[in-house]
């Protein structure tokens, strides 16, 4: 029977951070009385020398080893060294990887740290979406200086849908409506021109889109918002602002959001100033 006065030592050996192994160990330990164990995490292991050292330490402490190593050669060394010293070991990821290999009939990529990179991408995407919502429709001009991309254009030029699409590509996007009666914030002219994208549209198509928008809101389609005179005035004003900024301009007429977004991505990624 195990000496209940002494906490057992569990060594977590990982080629990444070791969070997966720690989560599993704590979940299992919680099923045994208080679940208290002394956990020692050894992250970013990529050589056999470190594994041999950890096995020796674990043997002296009469503990066990849980490991998440994707490289077969490192897993083999740990198993052999542990068996030689009579240590208890648990391969946390190996059996699942073997099962997936059988199920999918392909070999695993065997790249340490993939889970962490996937997590980082997920959180970057969430942060970008939150950014797009916070700085949508010119709510806070300070966001223009924090953005990876700033979209400017008159109302109904797909600024918000484009912002959300690009946010899913992990870009922080702010968008700003251009209205003749409202001066563009000075922050817009502080943003590097290569980070600003101007959006324009065919006047007749914009007229139709705005009329449909008014109908959907239960308003008269003849309102000034949808009049051709008003539309031409707004487009002329927005073009002047875009020329002053010196940014590239995209015509969104008859184009899907995905098509425009991909063109914006090409421009942003091709510009060496965007790193």
Overview of the structural elements:
The chain has helices spanning 19-29, 48-60, 72-84, 94-104, 114-134, 159-167, 203-216, 228-245, 257-270; strands at residues 9-14, 38-42, 64-68, 88-91, 149-153, 173-177, 196-200, 249-251. It has 275 residues and is α/β, with parallel strands linked by helices. The longest helix is centred in the middle third of the chain and has 21 residues, at 114-134. The protein is elongated and about 85 Å long. The mean pLDDT is 89.
Helix- and strand-based class?
Answer: alpha/beta
Numbering strands along the chain, what is their spatial order in the largest sheet?
A: 2-1-3-4
CATH class of the largest domain: Alpha Beta
Q: Determine the fraction of residues in helical runs and give it as a percent range.
A: 40-55%
Measured by DSSP, the beta-strand proportion falls in: 5-15%
Largest sheet: 4 strands, parallel
Mean pLDDT: 89
The CATH architecture classification of the largest domain is 3-Layer(aba) Sandwich
- Tally the helices: 9
Low-confidence stretches: none
Give, in order, the helices and strands. Answer: EHEHEHEHHEHEEHHEH
Short description:
The protein has 275 residues and is α/β, with parallel strands linked by helices. The protein has 2 domains: 9-112, Rossmann fold (3-Layer(aba) Sandwich); 115-274, 3-Layer(aba) Sandwich (Rossmann fold), CATH 3.40.50. Helices cover 45% and strands 14% of the residues.
């Amino acid at each position: 029977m195990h000496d209940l006065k002494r906490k057992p030592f569990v060594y977590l050996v990982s080629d990444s951070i070791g969070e997966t192994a720690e989560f599993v160990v704590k979940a299992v330990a919680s099923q045994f009385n208080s679940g208290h164990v002394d956990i020692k995490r050894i992250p970013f292991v990529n050589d056999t020398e470190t594994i041999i050292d950890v096995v020796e330490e674990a043997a002296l402490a009469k503990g066990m080893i849980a490991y998440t190593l994707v490289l077969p050669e490192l897993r083999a060394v740990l198993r052999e060294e542990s068996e030689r010293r009579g240590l208890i070991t648990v391969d946390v990821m190996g059996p699942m990887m073997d099962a997936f290999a059988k199920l999918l009939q392909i070999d695993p990529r065997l790249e340490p740290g993939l889970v962490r990179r996937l997590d980082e991408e997920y959180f970057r995407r969430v942060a970008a979406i939150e950014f797009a919502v916070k700085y949508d429709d010119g709510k806070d001009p300070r966001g223009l200086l924090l953005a990876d991309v700033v979209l400017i254009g008159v109302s109904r030029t797909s600024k918000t849908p484009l912002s959300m699409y690009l946010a899913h590509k992990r870009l922080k996007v702010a968008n700003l409506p251009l209205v003749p009666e409202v001066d563009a914030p000075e922050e817009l002219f502080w943003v590097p021109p290569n980070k600003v994208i101007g959006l324009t549209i065919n006047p007749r198509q914009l007229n139709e889109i705005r009329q449909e928008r008014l109908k959907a809101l239960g308003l008269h389609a003849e309102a000034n918002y949808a009049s051709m005179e008003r539309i031409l005035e707004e487009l002329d004003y927005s073009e002047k602002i875009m020329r002053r900024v010196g940014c590239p301009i995209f015509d969104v007429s008859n184009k899907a959001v995905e098509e425009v977004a991909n063109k914006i991505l090409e421009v942003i990624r091709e510009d060496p100033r965007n790193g």
